[in-house]
Each structure stands twice: as C-alpha cells, then as structure tokens.
## 1
Amino acid sequence: AAAVLPNRFDVRAPEGQRDATRAALGVAAGERLVLQPTRAIPRKNVPAGIALARKLRATYWITGAAELGYDDELVALLDGAGIPTIHGWPEGTDPDRIEDAYAAADLVVLPSTWEGFGNPAIESAIYRRPLAIGSYPVGAELRARGFRWFDVHAPVPIAHFLAAPDSRVLEDNRAVAVRHFNLDDLPTELEGNLSLPFSWARHPW
C-alpha cells in the first residue's frame, strides 16, 4: 500500500516588500514584471518565459542559476530578448526572501516542459499572483485541484487580466492552496498514513 502526500507550504508566509524590491531591481512603478522563479536549465523552458514577457512588453526576471551547461545559452537568450531582463538576485535583494520576488512581480511564469512538482505553482497562489504555466504532467494534476491558471502560450487573456485584475481569481487560487497544500495539515496526514501496527510498534528493536 502507498500514499502520495504532495509538497506542503507555509500558507501563512508574510507578504513581501513590493516597492523596495522593484526599486532594487530597477523596475519602474508602472512597468510590468514577469517572474520566473526557477533555475535556468533546458526543461525550465526559458525561451517561452521570455517570449511571453516580450509579448506583454514586460521586464523578465529569472531568479535561479544556470546549470547543466546552460550558461552560454542563457546569456544568448537574455541578450537577444529585446526586453529588459534580470538574472539572479541583484544587490539590494535577498534570495532567502522569496516572498519579495512574488510581491514585486505582476505575473509568475512556470513554462517548464517537465517538473517533479513545480513549487511556484503553489507559491504563486499563496502570494496571490496570476500564473502562466506550461504543459507538464504534474501541472495538470495540480490544476485539477481547482486552480485557475493561464496558458503560457496564450498572451491575450493574460494581457486582459493584467489590464483589469480580478481579485476573485487570486483569492480562489489561494483558497485551493490552503485547502490542499497547507503545511499545518501535514502532521495529521503523516500520523494517519505512517501509523504502525501495534505488534510492530512494540517490537524491542
């Protein structure tokens, strides 16, 4: 017998510092910021994230390091983006404060072609940010819980939402995250799934 317990998150995480973070990034008050809070490797599909930001006339920010020999390709992609781009955590920002990145963003993008889970999918909901997501199997499983996300390859609905945000969508997504991925619920679920038979529990080992 097996039980699957999905990743859990602190749904009571503090709000980040939007204005201070955007100032440190050099992003103006009326400028759109698209955040990709991932590493830079092939399966994270950086080109799709950049392409969406370009269509939205936004600044593109990818926070994670280039790995698996992706350094040169990332540099080429960012240099040829045709929009302002940011890589990593510039001076004045703190990589231990992911809440600041979400607070600064207007849109979160997770264009991955494959993920084991995809934490930004849940984090974006907790921090009340719209998400544009790629097509990967676990993402479809997460969406089935009731999330309302955008297709990373369909910029028009995203542009409409950014022009006139619907707070109900963001609150509904947050409610789904609290209902299904709340860290506070984990001890009870572990207790129910990992309880040992009485005879085994009393073994002198």
Note: Confidence is low (pLDDT under 50) at residues 198-205.
## 2
Amino acid sequence: TSDTPEEASRRPTEAVLAATPSGSLSDIRMPDETGTERNLGEWNGKPRLINFWATWCAPCLREIPLLKALQSEGSPPGLQVIGVAMDELEAVSTFAEQMQFNYPIVVGDQGALQIAERFDMDVMALPFTLIVSSQDELITAELGEIDETEAEEMLSVLTEYEQGLLTLEDARTLLAQ
C-alpha cells in the first residue's frame, strides 16, 4: 500500500529504529505536575509508552483519553504510560487537576530533550510517542497524534516482543510498515 505524505512523515527513520539508549533513563530527573522531583528510573523494568505533549497542543489533548484508557487496560502486563509535558509547570499543574490523569506526568523541556537524546532522536514535534520495552529498547517512535488503531497495533507488537514471540528487529520492522 502507498502511504500518504502525512503517513510517510510519521514513519520512524532507520536511525531511530537502530537507536538504543546511550545510558539508562534512570538518571533523568524531572518534576511531576505537583513540582515533586521524579526519577524516570522509577519505571525501569516495565514496558512503557512515553508521550510528549503540551497543554496548548490540540492533537496532544485529543490523545489524553486514549492514553488514560491504555493505562487502565494495562496491556501488555505492567504497561506504564508516562506523559512528558513540554510546558510550564504551573500550566500543567492546573490542567492535571482538571484531567485527573491515571498515569504519571513529568514536566520540562530539558528532561524531555535528554530522553530524546538517549534514543538519538533529533526531531521533536508534538505530540510524539515512544514505545519502549521493559529492557529500555526503543521499539518505535511515532510523530503526531496516535489513534486507537495505531495504539493497539503498537501495543500488540510490544506484547509479542515482551513475550519473546518477536525479535527486536521483527517488532521494529512490523511497526515501520
């Protein structure tokens, strides 16, 4: 099938797919929406969906109900959704009170850039989603808003990878199509 230009622009590059973290995410510290400093190592050993967003980004806001549902479903087992707000702490705090997130939100441009650097990412646009295995391996990166079908596909492949049914290369290839 032929991709539309928008679909092709969202497809991860070969460099992204080859990326593995240059160091653990464990040493990245960012405040949460209450201002309490968090260490991204808190979620080591869990498969993660890391979503970069902002309060002023309409496509980001449309994704939040889906992300809340994915966190509630918890598939693959142990899935941890993490929101990385590229915004001001005060704006995120106010917004978080209204949204009643069921997943952790961390705030800050610098920490977000550190996460992107660990996976050799040089393109940041919002929203932006990383699917990371429980072993800190980048499975895929999606630029732009994800919908339920895309999320289900990404998490299905992640589940098969976590269960040992797919190699990392096969998981990445499936999601790059």
Note: Residues 58-73 form the longest helix (16 residues).
## 3
Amino acid sequence: MKLARGLLHEAVKCAAVIGSPAVAGVYQTTTDRVTIETREGDVIPARTLVLANGYEMPDLVAAARHSLVSSWVIATAPAQATCVPWSDGALVREASGPYLYIRSTADRRIVIGGEDEEFSDPVKRQQMTSQKIEALLAKAAKRCPGISGVTPEFTWTGVLGEADESRPMIGQVLGRPNCLAAVGYGGNGITFSAMAADLLEAELEGRPNEDAALDAPDRD
C-alpha cells in the first residue's frame, strides 16, 4: 500500500490525473484514440490505454490462456516462533502442488502461504479459509517444528492470475488498436511487473524489444 501510494504521488507530480472512485464500464477503440466511459458517468479520452488492473481484466482482453486461482496466507505475531533458521531473510518455497512458502519479516513475524485452489468465487474462498489455515499451519510445523503451536495474528485470502505457460501476457490487446495489457503474473508478480514496465515503455515509445514476442498476448 505504501509503495502504491508513493507511485501515485510521483505520478501526480508528473501531471497525472487520478480519478477515484471510478469503474470503467465501456471501452471504445479506434485507430487513433481510445475512449473510456465510467459507471459514474465520466468520459475519458486517451491516445493509448494501458490495462494493468490486476487479475480481473475486462472482456476485451482474451482469457483463453489465463486462469484465476485462490490463495491463502497467515502471519504470526512478532517473535512468536522459536524456529527462524533463515536469519538472512531467505524465502522457503516448495515446488509442489499445492505449494507452500514460509518467510520471515523484518519485525520477526512468520508468514506462511499457499494452498492454492483453481477458482475465484469470493464466498467459496471465505468458506474454505479455516481449513486452509489449519493446513498451512500443519505443513509449516512439519517442516519446521519450532513453528508448531503458533497462532496467526492475521489471515487473508485473495485471487491470483496465472497464464498457461507461467509467463505473463504483456503487449497489444488483440483486435483493439491502441490498447496494451499486462496480466497473468502468477506467483512472480514483482519480477513480471518490472518486465512489463520495460516492455510497455518500449511499445509506447516505438522501440523494438527482443523479449516482446516471448510474452505477447498473441504468442504461439
């Protein structure tokens, strides 16, 4: 949240205009401009539209290669666990399915997450939260006995988006001139968002980028 607010602050300093709350309802695209109509009644003209709105994209972005999954996370109280062997802040992440990850924070919390399920319904996700938290605690305790008996101070669940090749989809939206999108970050959002910034900047400036074809939405 702090990072997002900081970026918005810098954008405003560069003459960006932020409209909030606003929900885009209609997208109209032509060969030379894009117009967005919000449900609040505003009409926003632009030369180019960049869709980087998380995992829930409008229907104009093809979803055949993209799926939504639910994930769960807990965080203990500071210094609650006696087993924190990774003093250098390393992340433990299994390559299993469903996966498990364990990491520590600067204030000595233990964060445990994973247990992904291939659905996005918020009601179903909330109903499964108790059993998922129990599963996360049991798995973590088995791998690190010092975590046994800890209780979560915070629990949360959310939706992730994944592409079929574990590669994001970044670039021109099919059939929509002047529309760019960045979606399908999966569990590598920090890395892929940095890639998206480079690829989209190159696209907007008309510069060739040798990596663009690897993550193009219309790649073979």
Note: The CA atoms of residues 139 and 181 lie 37 Å apart.
## 4
Amino acid sequence: MFLRPALRRDDLEQIKSETMAEIVDNRDNDRSLAIQGFRSSLFGAHTYGRSVLGHEKSISGVQLKDIKQLVKKHVVASNMVLGVSGDITRSELMSLLDKEFANLKKGSAALKAVRAPKLKKGRSLLVIDKPERTQSQIVIGTLGSHNRDRDHTALYVANTAFGGTFTARLMNEIRSKRGWSYGASSRLGHDREREAWWMWTFPAMDDAVACIKVQWELYQDFVRRGISKKELDFAKEYLINSHAFDIDTAAKRVDQLVDAEVMGLPPRYYENYVKRVKAVTLKEANTALKRRLSDNDVSFVIVATANKIEKQLRELKLFDSIKLLSFDEL
C-alpha cells in the first residue's frame, strides 16, 4: 500500500461516490449537523471549521493526478510514524522494516503549518433549520486549549467535574433535576493547535429554549466560580480509576505513543497521565477555567424547526447575533 499503491481510477470514483453519499447521509443525523454547525460557527474559515469529508464540489473536483501527486510528495521515509506491538523483539522488527521498507522514498515533505485559531468574539447563535423536528440538538462552546498548554490537564479535570461523567454537574442539572435531555455532556478537544470546548444536549423542542438558558447560567457559574473541592476529588478519582481502560490492550498503548509522536508531545506524555491528574490542585483547575474559557465569547448552535422556536430564542436577548441556515446548506 505504501510502496506500490495501485491508485486505480475506478477505485477513486467509487470512493468519491461513497464520500458524497456519506455527506448526504450526515444531513439526516441531527447531532452531526449540530456539531459541524458549531465547528463552522466557532472556527469560521480556519481549517478546524471544515469537515474532513469535504463537500460535493471539492470531492467532485478530485482527480487521479491529485492523488498521485499527494502520495509522491508525502509518502516518504521521514514522514512515516510506525507503531508496533506484539511478540517481536526490537532487532527482529528493525530487520523486518529494513527489508520491507528499503525502497521507501527518502527525503521529507514538511506539513503545512496550521495557524492558531482566533477566538470568535461575542455570543452568536446559529439556528440550523430542519422541518418537523420534535427534538432539538444543542451545542454550546468556545475555544479551549491544546495539550501542550501547561494547564491543559487542570482544565481537563475541571471539565470532567462539569460534564464528563454521568453524575457531573451538567447532567445533574439538565437530566436528573429537570428531565429535559436524556444525555448532557461536555468535552475538551485536542489537536496540534487550540481546540474547542463544548457541551451537548438534546431536549424536546418545547424545552429547548429553557435548556439553553440554564446551560448558559451553568456555564457562566462554571467559568467564573469554578468547581468545588468535592467535585475536584471525584473527577480526579474517576479519571485515575478509568485510566486502566485506556491502556488495557497493547493496541491502545501503541496508539497513545503514535498520537504523542504525531502531535509533537513528549514521548512519555501518556505514561505520565495519572501523575499529572493527581497533581492538579483546586486552585489550578479553577485558574485554568478563567484563563482558557471565555465567559462571554461563546458560540450557540441549535438544530430545530425554526418557525417553532425562533421568536422564543430572540426573546431571550442573550445573543449578539443570530443566523438562520437550512440544514442542507451546511
């Protein structure tokens, strides 16, 4: 596959057809629409705002010569990261690689640098209009951090306390107390540059506006006042205990090593994960929240039937801007 790729025209046309079908299928998935709409709203023209699937126009324009040129440029020895696990010694592995990859093209091809994303100012709302919805999909978030930040682990622990477990604050307030959404969670992404922090709920249409209001209040309290010592201790214990499931197979451990190499992280980054989590203090967690998450510059996205909810959303007087977009325009 690396040394002698077939790169057949028929195969390319089949993959293009399958990718186009996947793009169309995603429009039937309201959660996917909400997440893609959120990334597009938050990151704008930045690379992180675009779907890796592309779109109909970009896919249709791909030619076989483009694929061949890409392979020729990037499939070179210095660009390859190889992770191996199993019943094999290092010397056996190196002998095998020297034999099988001897003809791999030498040289290097620098990857295009990804610029750091800029924080979108103000509170914006994107309404993705989809007919006949009885349930909404809501994504609310802002820029978070990247895992080379010194306080990334502290922010990760704080996020776990807020929306990373079934008994976290967000789930307790949205599902347990009010019964608005079966699930309610928050996530802190990671990539080579600063990624998004976001929370997700999916209430019934009738509860959507009230849910957004409460989520906003919870978020502001989270950033401004932080988490409690009790929440911190629970989050740390959960992360430390559940870490066993992240390394319980050789494949998972190799995946972490490869990820560290590709992301430009220290070689022992994942090996030291538990140590870093244990070291997080309450002050560090709450300081990371104030430093990394804006309490005002936030992107709101909802997939809903616009004519049933737009008036109520405007009456919240929460947003600096409101944009309406049909689900098939994403």
Note: The first helix runs from residue 9 to 26.
